[in-house]
Amino acid sequence: MSLNFPDNFLFGSATSSFQIEGHPHAKGAQPSIWNTFCKKKFAVKNGHNGTIACNHYELWEKDLEIIRRLNLDSYRFSVAWPRILPAGEGPPNEKGLDFYDQLTDRLLEYDVTPMLTLYHWDLPEHLQAKGGWAHPQSPDWFANYTRAVASRLADRVPLWVTFNEPWVFLHLGMVTGEHAPGYRDPAHAAMAWKHVLLAHSRSVETLRSCSESIEVGLACNISPFIPASSDEKDIEATSRMEAYHNRLFLDPWLKDSFPDVADHAFGRYTPAWTESERSEAATEIDFLGINYYSPNRIAHQSDTFLEVGIRPPKPPVTDMNWEIYPEGLYEVLEWAFERYGPLDLYVTENGCAYTDSVGNGIVKDNRRIHYFKNHLEQCSKAVSDGIPLKGYYAWSLLDNFEWSFGYEKRFGIVHVDFSTQQRIIKNSGYFYRDLITSVKEGKKELVPYEDPIIFDKHESSNQLQNE
C-alpha cells in the first residue's frame, strides 16, 4: 500500500453525540428529537434507543485513552445542542458546556486536534415543538447556539463543522420519515431547506466573530450517481437525483447558485427568496468535509422528479447492503475540487458496517481492514494528483447507535459490548494505528495485513475497563 500523505495530514476518527453519549437528562440536559423518535413504534429496529448508547458521557476518559493508544492525529465529535441550551434558547447550561470543555482539554493534552461538529441531528425537542427547522426563527436559534459553544471552546478547537449531512436529515427526516422527526411533509421540508441554508451562514458569521484563527467548514454526504444503462431516460433520471442529493445545499452555499432541482423537488412548496437572503446564504468557508460510503445506481421509473428506480448494488456489499466502490471516493473528491475549489477538503466520514468475530479479547475484522486500505489508497492517489485533501476520519471510533438500525449495524474500529460497555480495539483499529505510525515515520509503503491472526500479539483492550 502506497503512503503518499504529507506530514501534516490528519488521520482521525469520528463520532456523534447522540450515537455514543447516552444520558439525555444529565446535569440539566433535555431530550432531542431523536429521543422522541425512538419512542415511536417501529421507528427503530428492536425498539432500541440512545438513552445509554456507548455511555460515552461517563466513559469519555477511557474512550479518549483509546484515541491516544490508536495514535490518532484528530478526533471529530459533535456537541449535543440539548445539553448546551436545554430549551433550545435562553442562557447556556454551563454544566453541559463543562463536558465538552474537559473533552477538548484532554484531547489537546494527548496532542489530538479536535474537529467539532455543531449539528449532528439532535435538535432540541423544545424547538421541534415550535416547528423545528421550518420555523422562520430557526437560523437565529442556531446562531445563538453556535455562540454559546464557540464562546467556550473557540480558543482551543481549531476546526469547526456547522452541519453534518444536511441532505440526510432533511430528506430522511422530513420527506420519507425514516429519521427524526419522522415527517412526510414536503412543505415542512421545503421551509427547512431554506432555513438550514441561512442557519449555516449565520453560524459561520458567528464563529468568525468569536475567533479569527479557526477554520470553518461543512460535512456533506456526496455520492457518485451511475445510470443503470446508456438509455437517455436512465441518464436523465440519474442526473436529477445527483443534483438533488449532491447539490441541493452545496450550490447555494458555495456557488451562489440555486439549482432548478429545488423547484422540481419541492414544487409548489418551494419557498420564496429575497435577493438579500440569497446573498446571505452564499458563504465562504475554509474547507468542505465529504462523507463517502457508496455509489447509487439509478434507472428511469417515471417523469415525477423524485420517483426513480434504485438498482441493486453490485457486490461486494457491506452489512448495510452498500456497494463497496473505493474509486468513488476519488471521484467525489475530484468532483468537489473541480466544482467548488479552491477549497481544502477532508474525508470527514468513511467506513463500513460488518458483523465482527469476537473471541479471546480479539476482534478479527479483515473485511474492514481491506475496506480502509482500499479507500485510503484512493486518498493517497488524490493527494498525488494535487487534490487538496487535508485529512481522513474513519467512521466510526466506536460501534454505536446507528439511527433507525439501532445497535444492529457496527461501524466501529472499536468493538462495544452494549450489555457491559466493554471496549475492545478491533484489528482494523490496530491496522489504522500502524498506518498512521508508518506515515509519521516517513515510510512510503505499508505491508498489507492479510493474515487474520497477525494482530494476536497486540495487547487486548479488555484491560481498558480495569485500569
TrEMBL record:
<feature type="binding site">
    <location>
        <position position="120"/>
    </location>
    <ligand>
        <name>substrate</name>
    </ligand>
</feature>
<feature type="active site" description="Nucleophile">
    <location>
        <position position="349"/>
    </location>
</feature>
<feature type="binding site">
    <location>
        <begin position="402"/>
        <end position="403"/>
    </location>
    <ligand>
        <name>substrate</name>
    </ligand>
</feature>
<dbReference type="GO" id="GO:0005829">
    <property type="term" value="C:cytosol"/>
</dbReference>
<dbReference type="GO" id="GO:0030245">
    <property type="term" value="P:cellulose catabolic process"/>
</dbReference>
<keyword id="KW-0136">Cellulose degradation</keyword>
<keyword id="KW-0119">Carbohydrate metabolism</keyword>
<feature type="active site" description="Proton donor">
    <location>
        <position position="165"/>
    </location>
</feature>
<dbReference type="InterPro" id="IPR017853">
    <property type="entry name" value="GH"/>
</dbReference>
<dbReference type="GO" id="GO:0008422">
    <property type="term" value="F:beta-glucosidase activity"/>
</dbReference>
<protein>
    <recommendedName>
        <fullName>Beta-glucosidase</fullName>
        <ecNumber>3.2.1.21</ecNumber>
    </recommendedName>
</protein>
<dbReference type="InterPro" id="IPR017736">
    <property type="entry name" value="Glyco_hydro_1_beta-glucosidase"/>
</dbReference>
<feature type="binding site">
    <location>
        <position position="293"/>
    </location>
    <ligand>
        <name>substrate</name>
    </ligand>
</feature>
<dbReference type="InterPro" id="IPR001360">
    <property type="entry name" value="Glyco_hydro_1"/>
</dbReference>
<comment type="similarity">
    <text>Belongs to the glycosyl hydrolase 1 family.</text>
</comment>
<keyword id="KW-0326">Glycosidase</keyword>
<dbReference type="Pfam" id="PF00232">
    <property type="entry name" value="Glyco_hydro_1"/>
</dbReference>
<keyword id="KW-0378">Hydrolase</keyword>
<feature type="binding site">
    <location>
        <position position="164"/>
    </location>
    <ligand>
        <name>substrate</name>
    </ligand>
</feature>
<feature type="binding site">
    <location>
        <position position="19"/>
    </location>
    <ligand>
        <name>substrate</name>
    </ligand>
</feature>
<feature type="binding site">
    <location>
        <position position="395"/>
    </location>
    <ligand>
        <name>substrate</name>
    </ligand>
</feature>
<keyword id="KW-0624">Polysaccharide degradation</keyword>
